[in-house]
From TrEMBL:
Its EC number is 6.1.1.7. Its cofactor is Zn(2+). Consists of three domains; the N-terminal catalytic domain, the editing domain and the C-terminal C-Ala domain. The editing domain removes incorrectly charged amino acids, while the C-Ala domain, along with tRNA(Ala), serves as a bridge to cooperatively bring together the editing and aminoacylation centers thus stimulating deacylation of misacylated tRNAs. This is Alanine--tRNA ligase. It catalyses: tRNA(Ala) + L-alanine + ATP = L-alanyl-tRNA(Ala) + AMP + diphosphate. GO terms for cellular component: cytosol. GO terms for biological process: alanyl-tRNA aminoacylation. PROSITE patterns: AA_TRNA_LIGASE_II_ALA (PS50860).
Amino acid sequence: MMTSTDIRNSFINYFKKNQHEHVPSSSLIPENDPTLLFANAGMNQFKNTFLGLEPRSYTRAVTVQKCVRAGGKHNDLDNVGFTARHHTFFEMLGNFSFGDYFKKEAIRLAWNFLTNELQIPKDKLYVTVFETDDEAAEIWHQQEGVPKDRIFRFGEKDNFWRMGDVGPCGPCSEIFFDHGPQYGTIADPYKSIAAGEDRYIEIWNLVFMQFYEEAPGKRTSLPKPSVDTGAGFERLVAAVQGRHNNYKTDIFKAIMEKGLSFFSSQSLEYFHGIEDRCLGDKEFAGQADTKQALEQLSALRVLADHCRAVSFLIADGALPSNEGRGYVLRRIMRRAIRYGRKLSTQHSFLSAMSEVLIAQMSEFYPELTTRKSHILSTIRDEEARFLQTLDNGTQILTDEIKKLKSQNKNIISGETLFKLYDTYGFPLDLTALMAAEEGLQVDEAAFEKQMQAAKEKAKASWKGKSLQTDEKHLIELSQKFSKTPTKFVGYDSLESSAYVLALSDGTQEVDSLSTGQTGLLILDQTPFYAEGGGQVGDHGAIRSEKSEVRVLNCTKHADVFLHQIEVVSGQLKNREQVTAAVEASERRQTTSNHSATHLMHKALRVVLGDHVSQAGSLVDSTRTRFDFTHNKPLSSEEIRKIEELVNDEIAKANPVSAEVMPHKEALDKGAMALFGEKYGDQVRVLTMGSFSCELCGGTHVKNTAEIRAFKIISESGVSSGVRRVEAITGSHAIQYLMQNTEELLAARQLTGVPADKTLSQWAEERRNEIKDLHKQIKKAQSNQINIDDLLKAAQTFNTAAGQAQLVFADLPIDDRDVLSQISDQLKNKIQKGVVITVGTGDASHPVIISVSKDLNPQLKAGDLLKDFAQAMGGKGGGRPDFAQGAVPDRSKLSQAYDLISKKILQ
C-alpha cells in the first residue's frame, strides 16, 4: 500500500516528468495580500500570474501547498474532529497551466495520474462538468473513455469558478471517488452526489479559466486560457489507502498513537473498531462505555488535526494573540488544549503530538525542524496560560449558575456564554450540558450574535477586496520594466547620474511632473535603497537642468525601484538625464543601525539560546527595532551581557564584507537566513568578522568600528513568545550616554550621594526608609482611634452560632490599610459578629466589611458590601469573611447602614 509520502512524491515527480516546474509551497501567511487571512488554496501564490500582472519563467507548475481554513468564509472549526474530512490544516496538490495547455491536457494528466500512477480502479471514479460545458464532457468520454452515465452536469453553484466579482472565471470539472454503498443511502450516484452524501467524495477539481468577467453575466474569452487544479491530499490518501475517514490514514496514525499513549492502554485499532461497529449497530452505539470511547476518539482527532495547524502556523510566523491571525491561532490552540484536558489532566498532549508531527513532516517541510524549539516553546507557554484560565472558567460558570438560581432565573445570557467560550474555551454544548444538569437553559441566539461579532473581529484586518486601481497600476508599471530591472549602485555610491524611464502621478503614466506635484519615478539606475528586509527606503534629492525633486521614499516591485517623489521646483520630464543623491547623514546612521542589528541578533542567541530568531525588524536613521522569539522578559544582567558582546565586536574594528553566492552554498557556509524574507537563487551574504554571518540585501558599514557605540534603550513584550528590543548606535548612542552621565552626576550632587555608593543603592535605602515611615504613620493613625469607644455603640443580635455583635465605625481616614487594621482589631475584640468601617476620601470613600467565619453560613461579607455600596452609589466585593469597595455619595451613609443593619439584626 502506498504511504502518504509516496503519494505526495509521486504527484510531484509525475508532473515534473510532464514538464511542470516544481514550485515550493508558499507561506501560510500570504505575502502582500490583504484579501487573505491564511493561504487557503494552491492558486494563492499564482494570483497575480493568472491576472496577467506577474509573468513567470515557466508556463507549467506543480505544487503541494500548505493551507489553513479556520476563519472567515472557510470556517468549519467546530466540526473538526467529529467528521471524516474537516480539517484546519491540509495540503492541496495542484498543477497549473499559465496559457499553455487547456482542457484536453488537464483532463488527460489528472485521469492518467489517478488510474495509472495511483492504480485507482476506474469503476470507483465519477466526473462532473458545468451544465453547458459540452467540450469537457466530450473530452472525458471520447479521450478517456469515461461512460456517459458516469459524467454528470451541475450548475454554477457546483461547477463554475470565479476569482472575484470581476476577473478570470470559467467552468470546472470535478472527480469523485466512490467509497462504497455502506456510506450512503441513495443508490443513484448523481442524486447521491447532489445530496452531498459521504459515499461519493470529491478528490480533484479542474478549473478551466476560460473567460474574463467584466460585470455579472458579461464575459469575454481570454486570449490565453489557463488551468488551475486542486486535489485534496488527505482525501486522496484516504481513497488510495482504502479508508473512508481521513483520520484512519497514515497521515494521522503516529500522531494519534502518541496522544493515545498518555491515557489508554487500548490500541488505535480498538477505537476505530468501536466506531465501525457503531455505524451498523445503533444499540451498541448507545452504550455508556462505547459513548465514552467515541468521545475520546473525537478528542484525539481534534488534537491530531490541530497540532498540524498550530505547528505550521507558528513555523510560518503566526503567534497567538487577541486579533487577526493570532486570534484564530489562539482559538485553534485553546480548542486542542481543552480536548487534551478532557482526556487527561496530567499530560501535555498538544506539544507532544506536535513533536511527532515535526519529525514526520520535516523532510518535506524543513521549516518545521528549523523552528522546532520556537514551535514547542510557544505551545507550552500558551498551554500553561490557558490551563489556568480553563480552571477559572469552570469556577466562573459554577458561580454564575449559583447567582442565577439565587435570583430565580433559569437562562444563562449570551454574553456569559461567549465569555466562557472565547476566554475560557468552553464550547456552547459543554456550557449547555452543565447548565442542564442544574436545571438551567442557555440563550443560544444571543450567543450566536456574539460569535458573529467575534468572527468579524478575527478577520477585521484581512477583509477581502478586489485589486485596487492604483495598486494594479503600480504592478503593471513595474512589470512594464521588469525585463530591465533597476541597477542599484547604492552599495558603493550615494550619488549617480541616471536616466528617467517613467513618471507616474500614482494612477497613470505621465510625461512630466511640475512644482508641488507628487508621484513615482523609475530610473535606469539608482543609489537609493528600496525599502526591504526591515530597512526603510532612502530619502534624498534628484536634480535635472530645470527641476529640483525631493525623494520621500523608495520601494520596489519585481526588482524595479519606485521612487516616491515631490517636485520642489521646476518641471521633471520623462526620458531626461538627472543626478540622484541620497541624504548622506541619514544613510550613514541607518547603515550603522542595520549592522548593529546583525551583531545584536547573534548576541541575543549567545546570551539567551539558539531558540532566538527574528520575528520582525525595523531599521531607520534613528534606531533599530528588533522582534525575536523568547518567552520571558530580559533581565538587567542579560541586557548588560548583550550590550557588552555587541560593543566588543564594534571595538574589534572587524571588516564587514558582502558576497553574492548560490542560496544553498550560503546556508552551507553557515549564513543565517532571516525569517520571513524571500530569497532568490543568488543571495548576498554579509559577514562581520567571525561573529556574524547572515543573508541580507541591506546597506551596511564597511568596518564595525564605524558603528561607534551600541545601547539598548527599551525591552518589551510584543505578544506571547515574542520580545522587542529597541537600540541606538553612533552619534545617537553617544549623545544618549553623555546626557545620562550628565544627569547622573547632577542627581548625585543634588542628593548628596556618598562617593562609595551607587545612585541605585542610595535610592534603595531611601525607599526602605520611606516604607518604614509609611508604616509608622499608619500605626500612629491606627493608635489614634479608640477601639473601646467604637465598641460602646455595638449592637447585639442572635445567630445560629450564638450571640454576635454588629459594630459600625465612621472614621476620618483615607488609607485602606489603616482601615483594614482597625477592622481586624474590632473583629478580634468582639470575636463573633460583623464590622463595618467607612473612611473618608476625595472623590470616593473606602468601605470595608468583615464577618467572623462562624457566621458565614448565614452572612457573607461580599453580599453585605454589594448592598451597602450600592445604596451609596458605589461598588465592591470580596470573600465571605472580608470584602472592600468604594462609594462616592457619603450623604447616604445612614440609609446604607440602616439597610444593612436590618438585614443583620432581623
